[in-house]
């Protein structure tokens, strides 16, 4: 009986400790298992987020690329249109220059009238500079209805093709009328101003029409 009690008292602590250790081990395993599942679930979720983020980035990049391609295509179309318009403008300008040159080459008589005008303006300018208005009056005549003024305007009419050129023709005729009137009145200051205006208008006209180079060659 004593032996039985001894065995019982000796084994109980052993079983108690063993059971306690076993229970503790199971709890640890359960906890570890739970943590492992949580970690696995967390990793899977993170991978899913990364995958979704990656796919979103690819979609965004694709949209941006498509948008850029559309923009480049539109820019290319606009550039092509601009090139066509520029090319057409160059063709038209070249055509106008050829036509103008043909007119100038054929206007032999008219260029002679203009050359006479250059000579008369030179003589008038020298006379006004020397305060010799009677000499200037002999070159100009008594009014704008003189023959040389009429022939000069015939040349203006044939060689003027733009509104700007016609504006300079009007300015020249107006200044020339003032010049003739001032010279006949013996008004030296007004004559100087009118001469500068008429000569300036004629010079602008020759530049616009291209006649200036033609007159230099005469």
TrEMBL record:
InterPro entries: MPH2 (IPR038862), MPH2_C (IPR049072). Residues 113-218 form the Maintenance of Photosystem II under High light 2 C-terminal domain. It holds the Pfam family MPH2. It comes from the Eukaryota. This is Thylakoid lumenal 16.5 kDa protein, chloroplastic. It comes from Camelina sativa (False flax). The gene is LOC104707843.
